[in-house]
Amino acid sequence: MHTGQLLGSGRTADVYALDGSWVLRRYRYRTDVTEELAVMSYVGAFGFPVPRIGPPAEGARPTDLVLQRLTGPTLAEALLAGRLGAAEAGALLARLLRELHAIPPRVSTNPEDCVLHLDLHPENVMLTAEGAVVIDWSSAAEGPPGLDRAMSALTLARIALDPAFPAGADVRPLLAALLAELADDGGASAADLALARTRQQENPYLTEAERERLEGAVDLVLDTVP
């Protein structure tokens, strides 16, 4: 099938323009997107902010997703540009996690489980004129909400310890703001962080340097917990 301009590339997928309304998200290492579509449709039905899902494009591959084309910066871009501060960004991430975890599980029979994004960080939040929209549901699963909180906190801490991160972009205030906002929800416990660390350690798309920072990232989260 014909794809338009390459709009962006991540660890596992490329995003192409189809027209002014739709984009094509094409995964490089997956076999299909059935589960991701199901999760997005499910949480969207509860009013959670996800991109609209478009009809399959003619000649699409099993690893293709047609999604609403969103206009606006990512939360990461807005932070780097100084358009909002750490406190506001932390409150937004916490609110999105809280709202997601209020949605009952789609397949699990455990009433304590909920839908988990498992990769909710500033690069996966788009700030559109209609509000924040959460993208990239490829890691979504179901389980205890503490794991999702720990995954977000651990990712921020890992980025904070990355010497290659842009100078002047201190992630620690955002981590502190997020953990303060999540404190009443249970925060990120040591047990949840251990599970999150194992999950990230086993992520084949992390670099070896990122894996080596995980132990320090766990310590940073625990040291930052209010």
UniProtKB/TrEMBL annotation:
Q: InterPro entries of this UniProt entry?
A: Aminoglycoside_PTrfase (IPR002575), Kinase-like_dom_sf (IPR011009)
The Aminoglycoside phosphotransferase domain, residue ranges: 5-107, 112-167
What name is this protein filed under? Aminoglycoside phosphotransferase family protein
Q: Which organism is it from?
A: Streptomyces filamentosus (Streptomyces roseosporus)
Lineage of the source organism? Answer: Bacteria, Bacillati, Actinomycetota, Actinomycetes, Kitasatosporales
